[in-house]
Amino acid sequence: MSFDSLGLSEPLLRAVIEQGYTTPTPIQSQAIPAVLNGGDLLAGAQTGTGKTAGFTLPILQRLSETPAPAAGAKRPVRALILTPTRELAAQVEESVRTYGKYLKLKSTVMFGGVGINPQIDALRRGVDIVVATPGRLLDHMQQKTIDLSKLEILVLDEADRMLDMGFIHDIKRVLAKLPPKRQNLLFSATFSDEIKTLADSLLDKPALIEVARRNSTVEAIAQKIHPVDRDKKRELLTHLIRQNNWFQVLVFSRTKHGANRLAEQLTKDGISALAIHGNKSQSARTRALAEFKDNTLQVLVATDIAARGIDIDQLPHVVNFDLPNVPEDYVHRIGRTGRAGATGEAVSLVCVDEHQLLKDIERLIKRPIPQEVIAGFEPDPTQKPEPILRRSQGGGGARQGAPRQGAPKQANGGGRGPAKPAHGGNGGGGGNGSRSPKPVAAKTGGNGAAPRKPEGARPAGALLGGKPRSEGGGAGRRDTPRTGQRGR
């Protein structure tokens, strides 16, 4: 199958070909006709499957089929794409501009951490497509600087992550202000009970598409465990990077403090490294992402949610310096590599404290991960495990994952900065288990039990009901923005 068999117009096909793409991924081959058909869509697709182009291309096509407003008339906002993070919003809007370069449509992106006035100016001039994070969109709605009364298409991208980050009340406030007659597209990596509940309330007889088994790991990724003592991890990481001459290494740390400390230590070892997380300034985040994507920065150390939005087609190396507390996060992490048909490598440095976390991950992916002890870094068999301490999350409950050895016990907070613009639509082959779209009730979508939630996360009832959290309130969950600046 080729893109020209999907019913896309010549200007869109020209832009796609210019990006070097000829064959659609499974999510694209199914989602594009479904969206062009005009109905609602519930799509299960993980990052790296090409889902961004799966909805941006048909949205551009549908909007371009309507005549442009008369000269002097203001363009109404006709499509709204909501994303959980600033980085992802920046990439999606860049994808809209890349694929729509030969169309007479205008788009803009809005998120917090930057001045609101340029966004107001763009809206005043008129745009067809808005890509936004929930918090900043609500700012504009409250200030009446955006008019969504003519909205035709709504997209919730990475809806599962938005719910995990506590955005359900923001989403419900946005939905309450939208015109009832519109096309709704919901994309999610998993179909948890919360997602099914949201889909039930949002979608009308949606087509259902799943292109990858839930929580499946990409076969192109070589996974490996290196057992090591907890106080030798950094030395082993330095050894692996030097010995194998690794570049573009994405390293995951459990905490912001740990990410900072590791980046500083790697720099002292002569390896160029920067940390990215919610407490970093926007300029620091933007610089780190830009240098990493340009391959001038050797190592980027990130926390889980800060890594959302890092979309590099052929990222070769992912290292779990700390195993995640939630097994599903392991799948999200290693899915950053092995895209676009390329091979990738995911290495985990595992100390005695993390043996149970490793068992949970292997149970989830239904296979053992090969282990290799590196000479000179053999773990001490007499070392006893220490608990991965719990810490308060400012009203979100306690969870595992406090930094050891005197690290501060602050609640994670802060915002997000935009990624360096890069088209983010078409990555990677699309897994397995795909099926053709067909009209179904949303509540029948998905399969399997709901994923394990991080400790301290609210139950489904708390997410989907009850009183919204106040703007400017207490600290949020693991590595998410604090209430009052969530997703802005």
Automatic annotation (TrEMBL):
TM annotation in the entry: none
Catalysis performed (reactions): ATP + H2O = ADP + phosphate + H(+)
Region: Disordered, residue numbers: 374-488
Positions of the DEAD-box RNA helicase Q domain: 1-29
UniProt signal peptide: none
Claim: ATP-binding is one of the keywords in the record: yes
GO molecular function: ATP binding; ATP hydrolysis activity; nucleic acid binding; RNA helicase activity
Domain Helicase C-terminal residue range list: 232-388
Gene Ontology biological process terms from the UniProt entry: response to temperature stimulus; ribosome assembly
Keywords: ATP-binding, Cytoplasm, Helicase, Hydrolase, Nucleotide-binding, Ribosome biogenesis
Gly residues bias: start-end ranges: 424-433
HAMAP family: DEAD_helicase_RhlE (MF_00968)
Similarity annotation: Belongs to the DEAD box helicase family. RhlE subfamily.
Function: DEAD-box RNA helicase involved in ribosome assembly. Has RNA-dependent ATPase activity and unwinds double-stranded RNA.
Protein name: ATP-dependent RNA helicase RhlE
Species classification: Bacteria, Pseudomonadati, Pseudomonadota, Betaproteobacteria, Burkholderiales
